[in-house]
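Researcher: Quick test of sequence recovery. Tokens follow.
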């Protein structure tokens, strides 16, 4: 076991820190903090992510993140881990990005050892319970539908769409019913692909673990060695090693460069315009309603002109905008307890949206019968 890594910390810090590398090449940082109250925490990061999703299963890493918690050989009950944490003032979460998947929890320090036992099993012998497939797939679908209305996800997907189609970067990271169970396949086939992904990339040499607790460094190290040494190591290349030197962003055409700039400009102009409008309203509360309405109408007219000046892009539906700025719309939205949305920048190159879009038979979802869902062409509307 290697302990030769030097960790520099402030001399006045009451925390004690130790870094080690287990025989399976799992890198670990241990922090003993007697002043951390009654809570201890752990985080394990796996150096893989959506950039390694198979081309025909975009979103597989994200789906795996959800399914990993659904029982292990040692603790087969799918809800046992969450129940144990919540019973002892604990919390848990996980996330997936292009190059990294992270899993973490905190719990009452008195139950940290038992929690680590349960946590480590997800990376040793997960079951990927078939009974949980539909539930977790629907949760992934819900996340996708939520993201469709968030401009930062849209703008991020624009960059991905313009990247080299032959590169790992060119994928759809969140996943949806359409991409995770493509037409002609079944959800059980997707589960098999998920297991293959886990067995290939969930290698100890790609993992880093952090433990923070009130326990001594020796106690933390003993728990680490006991529970995390069994994680298998396949000496998998890092993402940097695997894709080093490969071009992932092709030269953007003049039109696509113009388009991405338009998206950024319109979002900036929208928020600047709305912020100025809101400030003006506060400074001029004595304005009568007619004056307020006139100013709102003028602002909306200017906004539309900004969109229309892009000519064919606007007329062809490449830009679809919903500023919802009039006073009447504000009143209608307030009465429905809804939120006024910022402009929705929906690029529709080649009559397709930036996100995979589907219309799925709802009765199939409720019955759990997904065997190559029938996807209807939405015509590019979100």
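Model:
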């Amino acid at each position: 076991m290697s302990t030769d890594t030097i960790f520099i910390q402030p001399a006045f810090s009451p925390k004690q820190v130790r870094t080690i590398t287990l025989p399976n090449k799992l890198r670990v940082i241990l922090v003993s903090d007697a002043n951390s109250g009654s809570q201890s925490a752990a985080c394990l990061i796996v150096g893989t992510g959506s950039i390694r999703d198979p081309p025909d299963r975009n979103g597989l890493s994200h789906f795996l993140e959800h399914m990993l918690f659904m029982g292990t050989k040692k603790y087969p009950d799918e809800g046992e881990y969450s129940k144990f944490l919540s019973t002892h003032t604990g919390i848990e979460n996980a996330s997936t990005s292009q190059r990294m998947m992270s899993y973490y929890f905190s719990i009452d320090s008195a139950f940290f050892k038992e929690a680590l036992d349960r946590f480590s099993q997800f990376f040793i012998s997960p079951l990927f319970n078939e009974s949980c497939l539909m539930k977790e797939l629907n949760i992934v679908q819900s996340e996708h539908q939520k993201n469709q209305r968030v401009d930062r996800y849209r703008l991020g997907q624009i960059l991905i769409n313009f990247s080299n189609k032959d590169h790992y970067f060119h994928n759809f990271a969140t996943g949806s019913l359409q991409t995770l169970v493509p037409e002609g396949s079944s959800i059980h086939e997707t589960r098999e692909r998920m297991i293959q992904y886990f067995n290939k990339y969930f290698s100890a040499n790609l993992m880093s673990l952090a433990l923070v607790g009130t326990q001594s460094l020796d106690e933390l190290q003993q728990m680490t060695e006991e529970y995390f040494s069994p994680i298998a190591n396949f000496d998998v290349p890092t993402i940097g090693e695997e894709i080093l030197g490969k071009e992932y962003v092709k030269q953007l055409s003049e039109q696509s460069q113009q388009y991405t700039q338009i998206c950024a400009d319109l979002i900036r102009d929208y928020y600047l315009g709305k912020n100025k409008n809101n400030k003006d309203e506060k400074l001029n509360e004595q304005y009568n309603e007619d004056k307020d309405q006139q100013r709102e109408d003028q602002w909306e007219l200017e906004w539309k002109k900004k969109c229309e000046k892009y000519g064919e892009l606007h007329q062809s539906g490449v830009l679809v905008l919903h500023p919802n700025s009039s006073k009447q719309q504000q009143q209608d939205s307030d009465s429905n307890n809804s939120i006024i949305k910022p402009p929705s920048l929906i690029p529709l190159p080649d009559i397709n949206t930036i996100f995979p879009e589907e219309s799925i038979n709802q009765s199939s979802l409720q019955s759990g019968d997904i065997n190559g869902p029938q996807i209807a062409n939405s015509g590019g509307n979100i």
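Confidence is low (pLDDT under 50) at residues 310-382.
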